[in-house]
Structure formats: structure tokens, C-alpha cells
Amino acid sequence: MANEVMIETKGLTKKFGKLLAVDSLDVKVQKGVIHGFVGPNGAGKSTTIKLLVGALRRTSGNGFIKGYPIGSVDARRAIGYSPERPSFYKDWTAFDYLVHMAALSGIKTDEAERRSQDLLDWLELSDFAKAKVGGFSAGMKQRLSIAQAMSHKPELLVLDEPTANLDPEGRMSLLQKLKSLPQEQGVTIFISSHILSELEFLIDSVTLINKGRTVAEDSVKVMKEEIALNRYVLNTSNNKAVMKALQGHAAIQRMELDNDGSIHISSPDMGQLQSAVMEAVTKTGSLLKYFGEEQVKLEDIYRSTMDQGKDK
Amino acid sequence: MGFKAVVRKTLIDLTGWKRTTILLLLGLLVPIIIGISWRFHLRDAGLSPDMTTFYILKSFVGISFIWTSGFFLAFAAVTSAAGAISKESSDGTLLTLVSKPIARRQIVLGKFTGIVIHALLMITVIYLMQAVILWFLLPVEAPTFGALLLAIPWMILYSLLVILVFTSISLALSSLIDNQVVTTVLACGMIFFVFLFGSISVMFIRTSQTYEENHLYMIDGSYQFGNAFAPALEQALGGEMLPAQELGEIKGFAGIFKGGRIGEYYSSSDYQYPGELANYVTPAVSVILLMVLVAGSLTVAVLTTERKDVG
Ligand SMILES: Nc1ncnc2c1ncn2[C@@H]1O[C@H](COP(=O)(O)OP(=O)(O)OP(=O)(O)O)[C@@H](O)[C@H]1O
Ligand SMILES: [Mg+2]
């Protein structure tokens, strides 16, 4: 099981006319992880996902699900997909819809019925099993769409912004449910969002995408370490004066004051920076409140990598 | 497995009570109205029982060819099939559908099968109801009713051909165009083109010679359908082909008789149908041609759907 690859794309490209929506994208997702797929609006997340599930045809490049070429029936058998804006047959009840979707995937009727009921229970929709989907709220539709994705017991769940229409409470409750899946059922999850912070507690690894290209991809742990490297936070009783004293010092690459009153410093040399800071604090007669390595949140990675993306 | 699910859903979608009621009314309305006119005709004509049976039978077959298994059935098939793919595409439900582990080909063929089964069941019900209604409406004796019932299987067999042709063409259109309304309008236009090509073209062609020498019958849908109908007609009338003069409305539409609708005959005041079968091609050739059209349309529908970008 370990280190088995679930999703792999090589130079995956999709053009809509002249528009390059996905630009030689390389993505690799291990089996059994929750992988975030994050980027701003229009980055190409949904397009990539539609390529992975076989809805769109690629312009060039390759992609594989469990080693099967994307778009093949074998690849699709492994996938359960919940689209960004799920659509349903309005006159159908939630239960009938789920049974139909399972049957489409080749599941026998009695098993499809059992599984549909289980999924409705799990997603707290069982009270509405016999209600027509047309009357469902956006949140209920989103959950039904996830149930639909899981109806044939896929090994890989591909969820395109599943929390987009949910209130904060619904969002948390859904993400909690998803979090348990890899351990309990060995499912791999590929989940997209343009809000990185809400995925932070959920994901093991992440791909950052902008303008159709991968900006960064790694395990969340490694990424945090890389970004944290050489970054420090300083807080003193007189930040302005200390910054002025530090200005132009060889140990300082970048320095900025944030809204909360902390100075963020990039430095290649911890030792040199330490003595420079001490010197500046003494010279200005300030009080040192805090000095240490930066604690990185995913959001910071996102911001810094997206900034890099812009420069290019 | 997945194929069966597609067929099942298609059947469920097509059997909504509203749609079913409208189709039954539409299918039965024309035969009933015309049946009333037969009633008056028969009352005044004073025909022998044999002649009455014959009159009812040939009128029944005539109205079946033109309306029940003609315009009406084509319309029913077209409205069933035109939205089959385009509606799912514009509603967004196709996106989830194509992500499931089922070949797109199976989705198209499953829908096709569902529509064909539905149309066949519907037309069978309509024919049986029609026979019963005529039984009450007309002074029909038991032997006449029996003859009507015996004609029905032949009408249904011919109906299958009409269903296959119009369903497959509409399905092809539905896969090519993402707009259900446009697809439906185009497909309905196609019905008129196919059935009225012959009748309209004679206004321009004027002579049967032009029609024959240019082999225009090959692309004349009304001729090909009429020609394919001829054996069914023969069987329905008890195994004997009638002289053209006896056939009433059918001859003009079907164009299977020499000069059956060509202007030169209409324009002379003392015209008489030659009453001779044109036999441009044998009925089997017409059936094969129409089936080739079905296969071609289905191929287009399958290939277009398989290559489609969904979403
Ligand atoms: N079917 C299509 N035809 C033409 N252009 C498209 C199509 N689908 C997407 N695009 C374009 O491709 C680009 C990427 O769109 P995509 O929907 O993949 O972005 P996204 O990352 O999912 O954004 P969002 O966060 O808003 O969902 C956009 O510029 C979009 O306008
Ligand atoms: Mg999107």
C-alpha cells in the first residue's frame, strides 16, 4: 500500500480555443492521503478535475488513475466525483437518484439500495430520502452529490469545492466526515478549494495551482519547513526604531512589519541575525518581547507561492 | 448493468402521466375524428358487410400509414429523443453521468433502446385502443374487428422502422447540439422533409420522368417509407395488393405507384392512376436503406458523445 500512486499526470494540458486553462500540469498523489488542490478563481482547478474524471478530453499530456489512463472505464471505476455545481434530476427522490447512480456504475439493485441508505444516513440526509431533490437546499444538494460520488465504493474521491455552498457549521461537519475516510475505508481524497485555510487541518499534501500551472507540490509538512526556513519573527517595544537600526544590515534579506505589530525577517544566517538584533535593541533602548523562527500556516505558503507565480 | 440502468431511467422519464396523456390524445384524436366521418359515409353508402369490412380496413391502414405510424409516431419519437442528450448536457447532469464507470457508448445506446421500447409499447397501446374505439364508433361486425386486430401486428412492425429512423436521427442531432429546443425544432423539420419531400418536390419537378431519371426516389423519404410499408400493407389487407384506385389517401403520400403524385397526372382533367407499382427498388432495398440511415445516425450519436467535452 505504502507509496502507491493514485493520481499521476504528466504535462497534462487543456486548451479551450486559445485559452490555456491547464498548462502542462504535473500532479502526483499517493494512495490513502487527503490531497488539497488549491488555487485562486480561474486557476484551472475544475478543468483539471474534469480531465481527471474523464469529462473533458485532454489537449496533450497524460494522466493516470491507479495506472489506468484517465477517461478509461477502469480509471473511472476507481473514481467518485462530485462536481463544483452539482445538478440532479429534479423530480427524482434522493434515494432513487442514489440507487440509479449506483446502478449506472454496475452495482446490483439490492446492494445499491443498501449502500444508498447507508450514505444518506452518514451524510444526515435520511429524513429526506423520499423527498424530491428539486426542493433541496444548496447544502443538502452538496451532500447528496458526495453521496452520489461514493455510491459505487470508489477508491478515490475527487471533490470539487465540496464546501462552497455550506455554512461554517456544515463545512466543518462535512470536512470532519471526510477526514475519517482514509483510515476507515482506505479512500484517497483529492479535494479542491480556493480557501487554503479551511483545508489546513484536513490535508496531508497539497498542490498549489495558478494560471493552469503547478506552483508548488509537496507534503504539507515539508512545505511548511521549507518556507519556515530562514524566516524569523521579532517583536520589540519600539519596532520602528529597531527596524531603522537593522536597515541595510548584511544579515537581513527582507524585513517587514505586519498589522499585528510583528517584524518578519528573512535571513540566511541565524547567528549573524541574532547579534544584529541584540545590537539594535540595545542601541535603541527597546525591550525585546519576542524573537524566534516563524510559525508557518498553509495560508502563508499559499500567499508567498502565489506571489512568486505573479512575478513570472 | 449500467446499460440497463440507462434504459430504465429513459423509460421512467418518458412515462410521466402528462406526456403520456398528451401523446395518447394526439395519437387517437385524428383516427377518432376520421372514424366519425367513416360512420356517416358507411351509413349513407349502404355497402354489403364484406365491402364494409374492406372499407374500414383499408381506411384504418391508410390512416395508420399517414398519421398513427407516420407523422404522429415520428413526432413522438423525435420529442422523446431530441432532449435525450442535449437536455442532460445543458442541465449539467451529463457531467456526473460521464464520470461513472460506464462507456459513453452504453449511455447513448441505452437511451436509444429505452426510447424505442417506449415508442413500441405506446404505439401498440394506441392501435389496440383505436381498434376498440372503432368497434364502438362504427357498425363493425366481429369479422371486421378480427381483421382489424390481424392488421395491427403489421402496422406495429412497420412502426418499428419509423421509430428506429426518427429516434436515431434525433439522437444524433441531440448529441451534436446542446439545446433541446433547437434540436426538437430541427428534428420536427426533418419529419416534414422526409414525409413531404415527394409531395413537395412534384411541384417543382412536374414530370415523373425527371423524378425517375435522376433517381430522386433514392433520397425521397416518403417513397422509401411507402415502399417499405407496401409489404405490411399487403399483409394487413389479407395478403393481396390492391389496385391503386382502391387505396384512398395513401397513394399520394407513399408515391409507390407509378406517377402516384406526379404533377402531370394531377394536371390533366381526366386523370386516372395507372395503378401500377413503380418498383423503383424492391421493398427490401428500402428497408435496408433506412436501416443504413439508422446505423449511420447512431454512429454519429455515439462518436459525437464519446468525443464530447462535458462541463
Ligand atoms: N468549457 C470551457 N470553455 C471555455 N473556457 C473554459 C471552460 N471551462 C473553463 N474555462 C476557462 O478556463 C479557466 C480555468 O477555469 P476553471 O473553472 O478550471 O478554474 P477554477 O480554478 O476551477 O476556478 P474557480 O475557483 O472559480 O472554480 C478559466 O479562465 C475559465 O474561464
Ligand atoms: Mg472551479
Summarize the SSE layout with pairings.
The complex is a heterodimer of chains A (312) and B (311).
Chain A: E1 5-16, E2 19-30, E3 34-38, H1 45-52, E4 60-65, E5 68-69, H2 73-77, E6 79-82, H3 94-104, H4 109-122, H5 138-149, E7 156-160, H6 168-185, E8 188-193, E9 205-210, E10 213-219, H7 220-228, E11 231-236, H8 239-246, E12 254-257, E13 263-266, H9 270-284, E14 288-293, H10 298-311
Parallel strand pairs in A: 3-8, 3-9, 6-7, 7-8
Antiparallel strand pairs in A: 1-2, 1-4, 4-5, 9-10, 11-13, 11-14, 12-13
Helix pairs in contact in A: 3-4, 8-9
Chain B: H1 2-14, H2 17-45, H3 49-91, H4 93-99, H5 104-137, H6 142-176, H7 180-205, H8 208-213, H9 221-236, H10 250-254, H11 263-267, H12 283-307
Helix pairs in contact in B: 1-5, 2-3, 2-5, 3-5, 3-6, 3-7, 5-6, 5-12, 6-7, 6-9, 6-12, 7-9, 9-12
Residues 16, 19, 21, 39, 41-47, 84, 194 of chain A line the site of adenosine-5'-triphosphate.
Give a written overview of the molecule.
The complex is a heterodimer of chains A (312) and B (311). The two termini of chain A are 38 Å apart. Chain A has 2 domains: 2-219, 3-Layer(aba) Sandwich (Rossmann fold); 229-311, Alpha-Beta Plaits. In chain A, 39% of the residues are buried. The radius of gyration of chain A is 24 Å and the shape is elongated. Chain A is an alpha/beta fold and 312 residues long. Chain A is 37% helix and 27% strand. In chain A, helix 3 (94-104) crosses helix 4 and helix 8 (239-246) crosses helix 9. The model of chain A has no long low-confidence stretch (mean pLDDT 90). Chain B is mainly alpha-helical. In chain B, helix 6 (142-176) runs antiparallel to helix 9. Chain A binds chain B through residues 46, 50, 53-57, 73-74, 76-77, 79, 81, 83, 85-89, 100-101, 103-108, 145, 148, 152, and chain B through 1-2, 4-6, 8-9, 91-93, 95-103, 307, 309-311. The complex binds adenosine-5'-triphosphate and magnesium ion. Adenosine-5'-triphosphate (ATP) binds next to strand 2 and helix 1 of chain A.
